[in-house]
């Protein structure tokens, strides 16, 4: 069998994959990514924010079908304890007036173990991560420098994870400024943007329990609404080509639940395959699954 080659964009059409945030629902993007690769889609570069920054950073290191399969393996082995270790130490930290609930050292170790490169500019495929300046809320684009710090900054949910200092600025989750950075991708020269959204849990029977779980659920709802607004805005611009892969619906998995990764990936790949076969990439517009609804 021939060795898989990294995918690259054509000179005529410069496609960017934009990967949004969504906590544990980031697993959905893996299935979407696998289906798009099988279809022959070839991103020239990647843009990621929050959980999407984790997926974008890993895939940029091995932008092949094999890399996407390895990303699936990583997600399926992931536990909430590794990513969000909320325990007695977290409680004592609050009593000491610490500014966050969860220590990010576990996530740092996870990234250091799996990312095959150390500087963003050394990735096999160009990757750009979006964070937010904690002081003024402005978007900060990270394209060079230590990849682990950049991912931690992009995924630093305010109050949950500690902010990350880069170049003298304290940075937090990219979702504060721009969780689905479509505008960033076009600004970087994409002529065509394909968005891989995590969606939101539209079919939960009750609100998630616990402060972190509820915060992450609320954030996922805000993310979906922001994506709809951005998509509707770009839909009126005839000079750009925007395609959004439909998110899963109905979905009854909280973005705080890391136990459903295998199921989410399989389902996302199947449904994205169906969308592609039905001519999804030929149609513009915002998928109904992302608009406000209840199932």
Q: What is the average per-residue confidence, as pLDDT, rounded to a whole number?
A: 87
The multimeric state of the shown protein is single chain
Helix and strand pattern: EHEHHHHHEEHEEHHEHEH
Helix and strand composition category: alpha/beta
- Count of helical regions: 11
Low-confidence stretches: 1-11, 90-95
Question: What portion of residues belong to β-strands?
Answer: 5-15%
According to DSSP, the number of beta strands is 8
Query: Could you give me the name of the CATH homologous superfamily?
Result: Cytosolic phospholipase A2 catalytic domain
Helix content: 40-55%
Q: CATH class, please?
A: Alpha Beta
Q: What gap, in angstroms, lies between the N and C termini?
A: 45 Å
Shape: globular
Number of domains: 1
Provide an overview of this structure.
The chain has 295 residues and is an alpha/beta fold. It has a single domain (15-288), classed as 3-Layer(aba) Sandwich (Cytosolic phospholipase A2 catalytic domain), CATH 3.40.1090.10. The protein is 40% helix and 13% strand. Strands 1, 2, 3, 4, 5, 6, 7 and 8 form an eight-stranded mixed β-sheet that branches. The N and C termini lie far apart (45 Å). Mean pLDDT is 87; it is low at 1-11 and 90-95.
């Amino acid at each position: 069998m021939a060795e898989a080659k990294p995918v690259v964009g054509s000179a005529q059409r410069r496609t960017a994959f934009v990967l949004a945030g969504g906590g544990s629902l980031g697993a959905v993007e893996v299935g979407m990514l696998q289906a798009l690769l099988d279809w022959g889609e070839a991103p020239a570069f990647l843009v990621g924010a929050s959980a999407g920054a984790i997926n974008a950073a890993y895939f940029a290191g091995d932008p092949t079908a094999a890399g996407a399969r390895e990303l699936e393996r990583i997600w399926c082995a992931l536990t909430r304890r590794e990513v969000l270790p909320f325990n007695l130490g977290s409680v004592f930290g609050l009593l000491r007036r610490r500014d966050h609930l969860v220590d990010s050292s576990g996530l740092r170790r996870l990234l250091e173990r799996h990312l095959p490169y150390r500087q963003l500019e050394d990735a096999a495929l160009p990757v750009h991560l979006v964070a937010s300046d904690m002081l003024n809320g402005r978007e900060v684009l990270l394209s060079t420098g230590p990849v682990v710090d950049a991912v931690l900054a992009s995924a630093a949910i305010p109050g949950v994870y500690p902010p990350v200092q880069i170049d003298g600025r304290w940075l937090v989750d990219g979702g504060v400024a721009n969780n689905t950075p479509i505008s960033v991708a076009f600004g970087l020269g994409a002529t065509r943007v394909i968005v891989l959204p995590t969606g939101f849990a539209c079919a939960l029977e009750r609100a998630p329990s616990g402060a972190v779980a509820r915060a992450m659920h609320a954030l996922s709802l805000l993310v979906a609404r922001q994506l709809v607004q951005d998509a509707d805005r770009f839909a009126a611009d005839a000079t750009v080509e925007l395609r959004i892969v439909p998110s899963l619906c109905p979905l009854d998995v909280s973005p705080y639940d890391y136990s459903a990764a295998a199921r989410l990936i399989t389902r996302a790949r199947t449904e994205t395959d169906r969308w592609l076969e039905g001519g999804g990439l030929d149609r513009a517009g915002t998928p109904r699954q992302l608009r406000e609804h209840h199932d």
